[in-house]
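Supplementary notes for students who missed Thursday's class. We covered one full example, reproduced here. Read the sequence, then the structure, then the short commentary at the end.
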Amino acid sequence: MSGSSKFFFIVSGIVSIILGIFLLLNPVINLMAFAWLFSIIFFVNAVSSIINYFMLPSELRSGWYLISGIINALFGIFLVCGGFAFLPLVFPITIGIWMVIEAIFIFIKSRKSDSMVSLMGRNAKWLALILLLLGLLLIFEPIAFGEAFIYCIAFGFLFDGIYSIGEAFRK
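Structure (token representation):
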């Protein structure tokens, strides 16, 4: 992996982890204020996935990086365009859908254990499972969460950040 794609994965991971910690520390703050921050995360993830796809040698390229980047970009655009129109019900469902899709991509990419970071190894599958469960919980029980769904989003960003940083150091 080239230096620039490692940089974007590390930046993406750090920003995700910082956002996750911020959400854990300030769960009561209005979620509409976070919409712009979330859109930045999606765009950084999109850029790092797309750059990584094009920086890898053709024999190591996986279309999943490109698809993941495009989906993250679409979520970012959706958040930017509808940033002020989010209802409390729509926002957790939207983040839940993203978490489920991201978990599927992490699981698919982690199936090739030789292409995963030795630090992450099989742990990437557990991270994907946790991200999937949190996402499904947000989709099917968005109102019942109240303040708790902010914690689910925070842990989702923490797990995604850990995975992104792990991707930067893969073999």
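Commentary. Residues 31-55 form the longest helix (25 residues). The CA atoms of residues 17 and 158 lie 5 Å apart. If anything here is unclear, bring it to office hours.
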